[in-house]
């Protein structure tokens, strides 16, 4: 059985080699130009026919140049007389505790709607983001402004 499989394998390798050689000779051969037979005297001479190209047309269309970039938006000037923002205590949050682990620092917040556990980068509400948590308390930034401290709730 081994002898039969070895014989068939060698025969297939020889066939593949011959097929590869035939393909190589076909692709490397110079294109044959068919010259027309000489015509009778007085016949109009025509230019030789050009060889056709073997290149395939683009399957998915022609490559397009990159689209021009839209103009940069004009920076919006902030209002000069913006009203002051209400204090952080008006949001209803109070800092209950801070937990420090190997993976990060977490803050426990209490709110009339329910407590929350937050870390740096979390958003409390729209435009209110946790910037830093340290021993002093929780630092919040409203609409990208300077951070404000939400200190621990006073014990009565």
Can you give a write-up of this model?
With 156 residues, this protein is an alpha+beta fold. The chain has a domain at 91-151: SH3 type barrels, CATH 2.30.30.830. 17% of the residues lie in helices and 23% in strands. It contains one helix and seven strands; from the N terminus they run αβββββββ. The strands form two sheets. It has a four-stranded antiparallel beta sheet with strand order 4-5-6-7, with no helix packed on it. Strands 1-2-3 form a three-stranded antiparallel beta sheet, with no helix packed on it. A hairpin with a 4-residue loop joins strand 1 (94-100) and strand 2. The longest helix is centred in the N-terminal third of the chain and has 27 residues, at 2-28. The termini are far apart. The model has no long low-confidence stretch (mean pLDDT 83). One of its GO terms (cellular component) is plasma membrane. Residues 16-147 form the Type II secretion system protein GspC N-terminal domain. Keywords: Cell inner membrane, Cell membrane, Membrane, Protein transport, Transmembrane, Transmembrane helix, Transport. Residues 63-87 have a biased composition (Pro residues). Pfam families: T2SSC (PF11356).
What is the percent of helical residues? 10-25%
| Distance N to C terminus | 94 Å
Percent in strands? 15-25%
Largest sheet: number of strands, sense, barrel closure: 4 strands, antiparallel
What is the third-level CATH name, the topology of one domain? SH3 type barrels
Spans of at least 5 consecutive residues whose pLDDT stays below 50 are none
In DSSP terms (H or I, runs of 4 or more residues), the helix count works out at 1
Q: How would you classify the quaternary structure? A: single chain
Overall 3D form? elongated
| Total strand segments | 7
Name of the level-1 CATH class of one domain: Mainly Beta
InterPro entries: T2SS_GspC_N
Pfam families: T2SSC
Keywords: Cell inner membrane, Cell membrane, Membrane, Protein transport, Transmembrane, Transmembrane helix, Transport
Main location: membrane
